[in-house]
Write a structure and sequence with these properties.
Elements: E1 5-8, E2 18-24, H1 29-32, H2 35-40, E3 45-51, H3 54-62, H4 64-73, E4 76-79, H5 86-97, H6 101-114, H7 118-127, E5 137-143, H8 149-157, E6 162-166, E7 190-194, H9 204-207, E8 211-214, H10 222-230, E9 239-240, E10 243-250, H11 260-277, E11 280-286, H12 294-300, E12 308-310, H13 315-320, E13 324-327, H14 333-339, E14 344-346, H15 359-362, E15 367-368, H16 375-382, H17 389-402, H18 407-419
Parallel strand pairs: 2-3, 2-5, 3-4, 5-6, 6-7, 7-8, 10-11, 10-13, 11-12, 13-14, 14-15
Antiparallel strand pairs: 1-4, 9-10
Helix pairs in contact: 5-6, 11-12
Length: 420
């Protein structure tokens, strides 16, 4: 209980190969962007994954297809123990609540030394027949939101340790064309992978301190989507008895982010529509960090289960198995719809920021519900076999901006190049 939990992957550990430590902090989405590239080089390197929170691996296991490919990719994964340094971490929380500044500093230092203990980790791996010295650890990878304490520990203790930070989302951070000039140079031991040039202004502070590569979107590579299809028995019949699936990428209610009355109204309208039409079934998939909550379920549970369900399937598979697809406002899943061949329908803005602009609307990559377009009309437009010029142009723009060729090959080659 006091030790970190260990589990073997399906890719055999080879002492002769170089080693990558992949750090996952909070959610499986941190794997989603980088996994296609890592899977492509799985026979050339050892990939060891550390999950800092148990919830991340629990959510990943619910996505059976992604978890299956993840296991094929890694030689092992470790889950940080809930109980290791429990007393120290409890004391830290109390000191934060009581605002005891000196105690916070001391306790943080002790937790860093004892909880993120590299020597202990290597001994533990050795007991599982994964024999590593510090010098054998070449590269650490993490999503770019913030530095993991594990990454900091590796950096402090391992000479020439390199770090790659990468997106955990395909979110478009800017709809404006970017004309910043940059060069793919190896400036230091820190590397930043981005999806698009449009994202450069958003990450300008990180770019100043790190070497940069624009990699595209590996998860939208057709090669990767075909691999997902092969790992799942896909039912291409979109009819469920008498009802067709309407897929909805959604989020649970959060009072700091959404106007409650507007959120409730939106959910009610979706259920009114499905119930009255008698020909559609709503299939919801919730964001890992914004799962279904009481506000949503209080409405949903008042309707018969034959008109709604919640799926844990891989996003691509749930989309392909649907008649039409809707998404939360300004959400990255709108790109996933296009990648899977579906016209994106964007729901109305229910955020507290009433003036929030959608990058996907600005880029003309979706239909948006509003006064001029209701759900029935949007579904009718999106499901036509023969797409009109507006919808054809939508797919053309997506393919031009977000689906470059060989993104997996480019990204994986850069990883191997950095490890030399």
């Amino acid at each position: 209980m006091l030790k970190h939990f260990f589990s073997e992957g399906l890719n055999t550990y080879d002492k002769k190969k170089k080693n990558i430590f992949l750090i996952v902090r909070k959610q499986p989405g941190e794997i989603d962007w980088i996994l296609p590239a890592l899977n492509n080089i799985k026979h050339k390197v050892n990939i060891i994954t550390i999950f800092e929170k148990e919830i991340a691996i629990k959510l990943l296991k619910q996505n059976e297809t992604l978890f299956k490919i993840f296991l094929e990719t890694v030689c092992c994964y470790i889950i940080n123990s809930k109980y290791k340094c429990f007393v120290l971490r409890l004391a830290l929380k109390i000191s934060i609540i009581l605002n005891l500044k000196k105690a916070k500093i001391v306790l943080k230092k002790k937790i860093f030394q004892n909880y993120y203990n590299l020597e202990e980790l290597l001994k533990y791996l050795s007991s599982k027949n994964i024999i590593l010295d510090k010098k054998d650890i070449i590269l650490g990878m993490q999503d770019f939101t913030d530095n993991s304490p594990w990454i900091l520990r590796f950096k402090n203790e391992i000479k020439n340790f390199k770090i790659i930070s990468y997106p955990h989302t395909t979110q478009v951070f800017s709809a404006k064309k970017n004309f910043l000039k940059f060069k793919n140079k190896k400036l230091n031991k820190n590397y930043l992978f981005l999806s698009s040039k449009n994202d450069l202004p958003h990450f300008i502070n990180k770019i100043n301190n790190q070497s940069l590569f624009i990699c595209g979107y590996p998860k939208y590579d057709k090669k990767w989507l075909k691999k997902i299809d092969k790992n799942y028995n896909l039912n291409l019949n979109t009819r469920s008895k008498e009802r067709r699936n309407i897929f909805i990428s959604y989020k649970g209610f959060e009072k700091t982010k959404y106007i409650k009355s507007n959120y409730i109204s939106q959910v009610q309208n979706l259920f009114y529509f499905a119930n009255d039409s008698k020909k559609y079934k709503l299939i919801f998939k919730f964001h890992p960090n914004a799962q279904q909550d009481k506000v949503f379920l209080n409405i949903a549970n008042s309707y018969p289960k034959e008109i709604w369900d919640i799926t844990k399937d891989h996003l691509h598979l749930a989309i392909k198995n649907s008649f039409a697809c809707l998404s939360f406002y300004n959400n990255a899943s709108l790109l996933d719809f296009l990648a899977s061949g579906k016209v994106p329908i964007q729901l109305e803005n229910v955020t507290v920021n009433k003036n929030l602009r959608s990058n996907y609307s600005d880029l003309k990559l979706c239909l948006t519900l509003g006064n001029k377009l209701n759900i029935e009309q949007a579904i009718s437009l999106s499901s036509r076999k023969k797409k009109d010029t507006t919808l054809k142009n939508m797919f053309d723009r997506f393919n031009k901006q977000f689906r470059k060729k060989n993104t997996i090959k480019f990204t994986s080659s850069k990883i191997l190049e950095i490890m030399k």
